[in-house]
Amino acid sequence: MLIRPATEIPSSEITDERVYVRRREFLQACGLAAVGLAASPIAVNAQAAARPRKLENVARGPFGTTEALTPFENVATYNNFYEFGTDKSSPAMTAGSLKTRPWTVKVDGECDRPADYDIDDFIKPHTLEERVYRMRCVEGWSMVIPWVGIPLGDVLKRFEPTSRAKFVEFTTLKDTRQMPGQRSSVLDWPYVEGLRLDEAMHPLTILAVGLYGAVLLNQNGAPLRLVVPWKYGFKGIKSIVRIRFVDRQPVGAWERQSSSEYGFYSNVNPQVDHPRWSQASERRLGEFFKRKTLMFNGYGDQVAGMYAGMDLRKNF
Amino acid sequence: MSSARLIRFVLKPAVCAASLGPLGVLVFGAFTGGLGANPIEAITHGTGDWTLRFLLLTLAVTPLRTLTRWNPLVRFRRMFGLFAFFYASLHLLTYVWLDKFFSWREIARDIPRRPFITMGFLAFVVLVPLAATSTAGMIRRMGGRAWRRLHRLVYLSAIAGVVHYWWLVKADVSRPRLYAMALAVLLGSRLFVAYRKAGGVTSPVRPRASISATR
Q1: Mean pLDDT, rounded, for B97-111
Q2: Contact A105/A224 with Cβ under 8 angstroms?
Q3: What stretch of H or E contains B126?
């Protein structure tokens, strides 16, 4: 399998990105001016679209794919991040209000080294890796994203989970001033997600701090987000402020909202439909025809073993 | 220029052209990359939104006419109704072509199994006889009474259309709720009129209104 060198992608893509970003900034400014809005939202937009800082010393990680990458512009403007509005276009326009420095990640629960970490201290001990993963959204579309992150398992080991730790629970920031979408009660804020400990420790699971060789944009879940490529995208909780080791299965925000539609596992599975739509196929952004959805999003060789003997129809 | 000529030669063509605007925006966007990362989703949502808007616009004609006492308004009703059907057809075509790629087996399975698709399909099917009988000739042939009774199906279509939207959103029902509220006002105004005609408090809203609401 051909794995692209990490340096090859950013250099070619960042030029594009700047052009795209400028164009968008300009169009947004025009659009907003046309409807006569005040100048402040434009400033916020410009901030959100500002070119992200490039990350240094990114090693090439395992599990690459040779599939075509989803263009940066699409990854940066098509986002489900309800903390910044329920339209896919709104996070790119409004996420500028999120302040990602200083940022504290609280680690607690069933572990021997609970602590509050500054985000930079949290990341520093680890080597940044580029991981090109497919991402399949529960809504039926998918992307291929070159993430930059650190293996979650390596991170969790540092906190020395006890034998009572069976699951890991993640929580997003809750702050209606920084996350205006939280003023509307579409979900029970803050956003929560969880993994079984073995899923969390799996080498495919990462905490992402960037994509396309640069720091994560706010709308993509800055400064720290979960990426679990064999699960539906909503499991990839964004803007994490707390990681807690627990002995009971956490209830995610979507599961709480509708447990018949969004299960704890939410492994990509073309045979188990969402109650309201089929999951058999997906539209890869940028492609006209739909493609067949793969079991575990194509990561079955790596992860199927964790679910051996389980009824995946029941444990959806 | 007489008011009849003004309507026929100026206002109607202008409204017709404006009603094609949303289609123009989608087509232009599709060719210039203006529909975002997922153009097919944008087309699906766009045609669906405009179907509902034209349905509501059609249903708004009669109450507006009563309120403004500007009777010529009614001459735009058929056009709005046909545009609702037009955008509904494009919406259905988007589903059949760009979502299912003419896989009739899948479509036949989807319609009874996915409640929101059942509702959307119902909303469309009900519009077909209305579009087919929209000509002056058909009204004459059917007779005004029978024609009016048949065309009360538009209430069913609008209700099914709004339910279709409500049932497909994941969590944020704020927009379907807006459509539902507008529809409630438009249907409510008819109930109110029927109630007053039926003699107010003493007699319940029997003949016309109950049929309108449930048909």
Answers
A1: 95
A2: yes
A3: helix B115-132
Q: How confident is the model at residue B2 (pLDDT cuts 50, 70, 90)?
A: confident
**Can you give the pTM of this predicted structure?**
0.84
* Chain B residues inside the 8 Å CB shell of A286: 37
Q: Do B106 and A278 touch (CB under 8 A)?
A: yes
Among A16-30, A162-176, B27-41, B176-190, whose mean pLDDT is lowest?
A16-30
Rounded to the nearest angstrom, the minimum Cα separation between A67 and chain B is 18
Collect all residues from A whose CB is shorter than 8 A from any CB in B.
70, 73-74, 77-78, 82, 86, 88-89, 139, 141, 184, 186-187, 257-258, 276-278, 283, 285-286, 288-290
Q: What is the pLDDT of residue A51?
A: 66
Q: Does residue A316 have a pLDDT over 90? A: yes
Q: Considering only CB atoms, which chain B residues are within 8 Å of A70?
A: 37
Token pair, residue A104, equals 């504290």
Spatial separation of the C-alpha atoms in residues A90 and A84, rounded to whole Å = 6
Phi-psi map region of B213: left, alpha, beta (phi>0 left; psi -120 to 50 alpha): alpha
Give per-residue pLDDT as tens, B167-213. 999 999 999 999 999 999 999 999 998 888 887 655 454 545 444 44
Nearest to A276 among B168, B171, B172 (CB): B168
Q: Which of A73, A86, A285 sits opposite B172 (nearest CB)?
A: A86
Distance from CA of B101 to the nearest CA of A (A): 8
- Which residues of chain B does A78 touch, with a Cβ-Cβ cutoff of 8 Å? 36-38
Cβ of B110 within 8 Å of Cβ of A278? The answer is: yes
How far apart (Å, rounded) are the C-alpha atoms in residues B181 and B196? 22
Q: Is A290 helix (H, G, I), strand (E, B) or coil?
A: coil
Cβ distance A88 to B40 less than 8 Å, yes or no, reads no
Q: Any idea which fold A8-307 has? A: Sulfite Oxidase; Chain A, domain 2 (3.90.420)
Q: Which residue, among A273, A311, A276, A265, has the nearest Cα to A293 in the 3D structure?
A: A273
- pLDDT bin (cut points 50, 70, 90) of residue A2 is low
A27-61 burial by CB neighbour count: b if 16+ within 10 A, else e?
A: ebbeebeeeeeeeeebeebbebbeebeebeebeeb
Compute the nearest-CA separation of B40 from chain A (Å).
8
Domain ranges within chain B, ordered by starting residue? 3-214
Per DSSP, the three-state class of A298 is: helix
HSE (CB half, 13 Å, CA atoms) of B26? Answer: 22
Closest by CA position to A137, among listed A85, A74, A186, A197: A74
